[in-house]
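Troubleshooting log. The previous structure file for this entry was overwritten by mistake, so regenerating from the original sequence record. Sequence copied from the archived sheet and checked twice against the printout by T.R.
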Amino acid sequence: MLRSSVAFFLRFVFACSGLVFCFPGNAQIANAISAADKVYGLSKFWQEVNYNFVYLDRIDRKMWDSTYKALIPLVQETENDYAYYRLLQKFCALLHDGHTNIFPPKIKGLTIMQNVFGDHLVVVKRIEDKPVIIRSWKKDQSLLPVGSEIIAVNGISSERYLRDSLLPYISSSTEYVKWNGATHWMLAGAPGTSFNIKIKKPDGKQAVVNLVHASPTDSIYFPEAGAYYDEQERELLEFKMLENGVAYLGLNSFSNRKIDTLFDAVLPQLYQAKGLIVDLRFNGGGSTNIGTYILKYLIKDTVLAGARYATREHLPAFKAWGAYVTEKDTIGNAWNKKCLEVYKGVYTYNFPYEPQSFVLNRPRIVVPTVILTGNRTASAAEDFLIAAENQKHMIRMGEPSFGSTGQPLVFDMPGGGSARVCTKKDTYPDGKEFVGYGIQPHIPVVPTVDDYLKGKDVVLDRARAYLQQKIK
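Regenerated output below.
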């Protein structure tokens, strides 16, 4: 079963949908989409959600429809294509779903700068629920030292600035993913855009710094790019033997079937492992089948109990009949209940479910295993976690997963943009939900600012220590 990879979505939506900036007066952003097409695009998205969005029962339908109606004149009045897509993204964000998104086209005249402010560089990451500077120019370590917390932007507290100005445009199933993305892009803007930031330095002293987006004049990062464990470039599969027979297996994407071939190549070495770390922290998903191919070798069972699927079912005649049915009419009457649910758009088709039986022609690696998870563990990688749920030799460690999966319906939007709507609901086999919540680790391990800036991968370190105790 295919999954749309969230890795691409994370890069794209954070680059285009959570930005707050003003444009200099001479900026000429294209307004090429006609008023009629702007209404058509809005209506098309609204219609596809009404017919296909699997979580329609979770939203306030009156609010959804009234917002659509209110946007009809507003989209026609947008001054350019960027402003139009911003309204669409804000509308989409009302659905709170990580697999339902608006993707703007490349817009003529629109340039976005993220971190560079001419003489200054500011790269921000959310750590311990705070926006922290994790990189700046080497020459700026007294002015903008790494480890500083941004406590205000343009005279507004950082929390309020992020909540009011960025979060409303980010579509995600979990709040922490919204905050992570908003923080990452909190200082993005067009050339000439200015930010006045107040920072709290690592020594506790506060300072105010004025920043204006412009081309860079320096080139010496501090620290260097890739210095932190979560910013390094990663291969599709990473394998290494650690101390005392513990093997490390980084599975960084299920979007390319080549990873299964790479796994086959390291199997002979894996058979020597006394303990195993499976790192899914940087896996944004792909295909569930690609992941379960690997998982089959890591469990002792011959059955995989994966996710259970459901989708909405639209039956026009039942919808027509349902218009005349009340809640009272459904008591003890399955036919009327079905009619009313179809009328409301919440009638569900549950896919036939049966755990997957399999036979392997090679030995397995069934040893004490720690699966590392994080906020970027998404989609098909979350299905991997569900299928591994009841394995007594496995535990999860780290932070909650992304909390979104499903099968999106993708369609074109005006001006070369696109959109997608989630059509399939995934749950645990027993119906327990994880979309909107994330899959929780058995042992939570959350890096602190100090851990991060010292380059400590405390999640991996904790897993190594845990397995050393298990394999003594």
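Residues 237-306+355-405+442-470 form a domain with the 2-enoyl-CoA Hydratase; Chain A, domain 1 fold (CATH 3.90.226.10). Archived copy saved in two places this time.
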